[in-house]
């Protein structure tokens, strides 16, 4: 399976102030493969940014576990 991901912050439809925004979420992959990268688009897919994977990475035998990620980006 391709990497699946969910955004947990900010909530859908939330108004965010201009400035730096922190987007957070989690990701997982199928077939026992680890998540090595999460790309996030803040403009409907025109451009993409690489999120930072947060915390400890699961060991190879637990690569099915969720991985937390976050992205800090400027927003207008």
Automatic annotation (TrEMBL):
<dbReference type="InterPro" id="IPR014756">
    <property type="entry name" value="Ig_E-set"/>
</dbReference>
<dbReference type="GO" id="GO:0020037">
    <property type="term" value="F:heme binding"/>
</dbReference>
<protein>
    <submittedName>
        <fullName>SUOX oxidase</fullName>
    </submittedName>
</protein>
<dbReference type="InterPro" id="IPR005066">
    <property type="entry name" value="MoCF_OxRdtse_dimer"/>
</dbReference>
<keyword id="KW-0560">Oxidoreductase</keyword>
<feature type="domain" description="Moybdenum cofactor oxidoreductase dimerisation">
    <location>
        <begin position="1"/>
        <end position="75"/>
    </location>
</feature>
<keyword id="KW-0500">Molybdenum</keyword>
<dbReference type="Pfam" id="PF03404">
    <property type="entry name" value="Mo-co_dimer"/>
</dbReference>
<dbReference type="GO" id="GO:0030151">
    <property type="term" value="F:molybdenum ion binding"/>
</dbReference>
<dbReference type="GO" id="GO:0005739">
    <property type="term" value="C:mitochondrion"/>
</dbReference>
<keyword id="KW-0479">Metal-binding</keyword>
<dbReference type="InterPro" id="IPR008335">
    <property type="entry name" value="Mopterin_OxRdtase_euk"/>
</dbReference>
<dbReference type="GO" id="GO:0008482">
    <property type="term" value="F:sulfite oxidase activity"/>
</dbReference>
<dbReference type="GO" id="GO:0043546">
    <property type="term" value="F:molybdopterin cofactor binding"/>
</dbReference>
<dbReference type="GO" id="GO:0006790">
    <property type="term" value="P:sulfur compound metabolic process"/>
</dbReference>
